[in-house]
Amino acid sequence: IIVSVDTPDNSSRLLRRAMSSGDAVRLYDVVFVLGPPGSGKGTQCARIQENLGFVHLSAGDLLRAERQRAGSEFGELIETHIKNGSIVPVEITCKLLENAMIASGTAAKGFLIDGFPRNQNNLDGWVREMGAKTKVHFVLYLSAELEICVDRCLNRGQGRTDDNVESIQKRITTYNNQTFPIIQHYEQLGLVREIKCGTKTPDQVYAEVAQVFGNAGL
Ligand SMILES: Nc1ncnc2c1ncn2[C@@H]1O[C@H](COP(=O)(O)OP(=O)(O)OP(=O)(O)O)[C@@H](O)[C@H]1O
Ligand SMILES: Nc1ccn([C@@H]2O[C@H](COP(=O)(O)O)[C@@H](O)[C@H]2O)c(=O)n1
Ligand SMILES: [Mg+2]
To answer: Does the model's ipTM exceed the 0.90 cut?
Structure first.
């Protein structure tokens, strides 16, 4: 088994994992971060990255960057999906995630994958392409009342083309119909760690987030 490593620390960690995993080498530790639009996923991921050594990869941010990339053949398709709050085909999103993971090297403790898997197509594509290369430790589910989420998106002030009433309504419909069932799927596997965020400050939410990671030994 060949394990690619770039630091002494990681080399022992990855080799330990390779030796203990039996048949497959699991190179990437992953935590998925899900929740309604505006629940605070990006806000909390930034803190986890800063404090706990995980690399934050937002599927939405990667898609927005690909949309802006000169010469991208997917720019128009991505923008149409973003405005409609619909989900980009997994072949595109999964490749962007994998490229970003590879580009991060092995210095990361693991990856926080924010806003993914968002529907059954995302989940199936991830299992197909990344299932054997990753260990999903748990799904951090940041829940919040939808009215609060709408207000947060409308007041975010980042100039997103989908932070308007019409797009937000569509994003919430997609969340209810397509993403929530994925959370329920992971719930059945005992992998969901829910934090109710609606009325808590970012500091209060982060205190609970840190506890969840601590309990998982991460
Ligand atoms: N606990 C909180 N209390 C009040 N405001 C918050 C809280 N957490 C985040 N916010 C604010 O709400 C807005 C949305 O937060 P953030 O971008 O982290 O959400 P998100 O879940 O990543 O949203 P999206 O799914 O649309 O990307 C931001 O303006 C952020 O500063
Ligand atoms: N797995 C994903 C994630 C996101 N999208 C699209 O991007 C939009 C914005 O996502 P945020 O997480 O930044 O809110 C989202 O509404 C989708 O259109 C996607 O297709 N697949
Ligand atoms: Mg976000």
So the answer is: yes
